Amino acid sequence: MTSASDHCFVVPAYGESPHLEACLRSLAAQVDQSPMVVATSTPNAHIAGLARRYGAKVAENPAPGRGIGADWNFALESAPSRWVTLAHQDDVYLPDFVRRTRQALSSHPDAALVFTDYREIEGTGQRPRSPLLGIKRLLLELAFLGSDHASSRFFKINSLRFGCAIPCPSATIDLKTALRFDVNLKVDLDWDAWLKLAQRAGTFVYLREPLMQHRVHPDSETTSAIEAGYRHREDAMMFRRLWPRPIADLLSFAYRASYRSNQTLPS
Q1: In a domain? residue 92
Q2: Given the DSSP bridges, would you call strands 83-86 and 149-150 parallel, antiparallel or unpaired?
């Protein structure tokens, strides 16, 4: 069984998010406890006060303003353990997240990445199931073929061939892989990172239980990136790494149409 000293949560925190407290509260309420670190490029009293309240350490980025990729890399460097979950500040983690993740690590000692299913929330309640979420689950089933793990390069890449179906906030990363995010990307840095990881040794482990809740709202990074056009450009680039250009462009166009589910949120 992976011990508490082997896993931690690092929360990349920005500004004064109204959802940060719910995130930290959910991490503190885990059945199996893990240390918490709040990594920030925007230190302020709001972040410091919530960290004290929920027993999290604060790591202040000495080189702020270099983008989300650099912030996430600093968050990884702030982890005091081998295994780290980058907990997104807007999201909520169910009480069994750590327990089930540790069990998966114990069952698959060669794991490089463990991730779980998730639900979406908006406002104060659960969001109706979106078509995009259903498509992502189908893509994972086609890649994992009923198994809870994929070890071969072929099947790991298959889990990413039609888009990034691996949810970043539910992913627990082995820092021994020396994984780092591309600082030149604004949106698909997780897709890029998982694809690089898929080409190395190590197993991907998929827990089908929805063990966290991802918040979708108008001020999220995803929504902003869609509106700014970054997402479409980066999606096209990623698909072209996996497919001949005509197929890649067709997939990119289809994905662009699916973004509407993120843009129909109440203001």
Answers
A1: yes
A2: unpaired
Question: Distance between CA 30 and CA 23 in Å, rounded?
Answer: 11
Residue 1 has pLDDT above 60, yes or no: no
Query: What is d(CA 9, CA 84) in angstroms, rounded to the nearest whole number?
Result: 6
Beta-carbon neighbour count of residue 264 at 10 Å? 8
pLDDT recorded at residue 134: 75
Whose CA is closest to 68, among 192, 172, 161? 192
Q: How far is Cα 75 from Cα 85, in angstroms, rounded to an integer?
A: 10
- Is 265 within the bounds of a domain? no
CATH of the domain at 202: 3.90.550.10
- pLDDT surpasses 90 at 98: yes
pLDDT at 55 over 60: yes
pLDDT digits (tens, 9 = 90+) for 67-82: 999 999 999 999 999 9
The residue segments making up the domain with residue 113 are: 4-260
Total domains in the chain come to 1
State the amino acid at position 66 in one-letter form. R
